[in-house]
Amino acid sequence: MKDLIIFLAALAAGVVVWKLLSKKLYALGHAAWKVRLASLTVAFVSFILTIGLLAPTPPTQTSSATVVKAKEKPAQTAQAPIQTPEPPKPVPTVENSPEAIKEQIKKLKPEIQEVSLTTESVLITHLRKPVWDGKHWVSSFFFDTLDIIKAFPQIAGTDKLRTITFLVRTPTVDQMGKEGDQLGMKVTYELPPFKAANWNNMSAWNMANLPKDIEFKRLGLESAVEYCKDEDNAKNANTFCRRVLIKLQS
Prior knowledge:
54% of the residues lie in helices and 16% in strands. It is α+β, with helices and mostly antiparallel strands.
């Protein structure tokens, strides 16, 4: 209905323009065919312009898309799930119960006879037999301490342990030929300083020089004297050998 009204209005405008223009051109004395051609042309243009002016302007596609996006955006925002970071998964830790630590330490060396463990210290009973002589008894012990303390952090899995003490026992044979053993040395190391150790450059001589404390018993002192008679040992394990000398002089 609205389109029909627009069409009739445009047609009326065209007729009015055609009649007025024809009348004007005839008055000016133009030829009839020129008047009809000019009047019809102008009337047709008026018809088209009238329709263009009266016809409603359709909404542009861009505007529609913008409206749709504007309507959809809040919905999308509302529906988007909130991403919350997942809590880190617990990292499995090695078994570090006291009994497990003891068993792992015993597996390091067959010379380890017993292991006692407290909150901050470890006590290891060490017995190597047979040995050739006292010098090799001392030397073999310090080679063992190098391997044991190097592996200790991975075994213990804790930083609470502060000291490790070795009860170094030496094999004996009594007058009746019976074999046994006696305590030769009690050697204590502090563990924290070894965190900075470059184990590639460490030797048994380093381990001889680094104990916090050494207590010599008779058989252990005799073996330590034999150890320090060796020129290389006296030179490279000089701190240990000074302790031996002090004990002899006391």
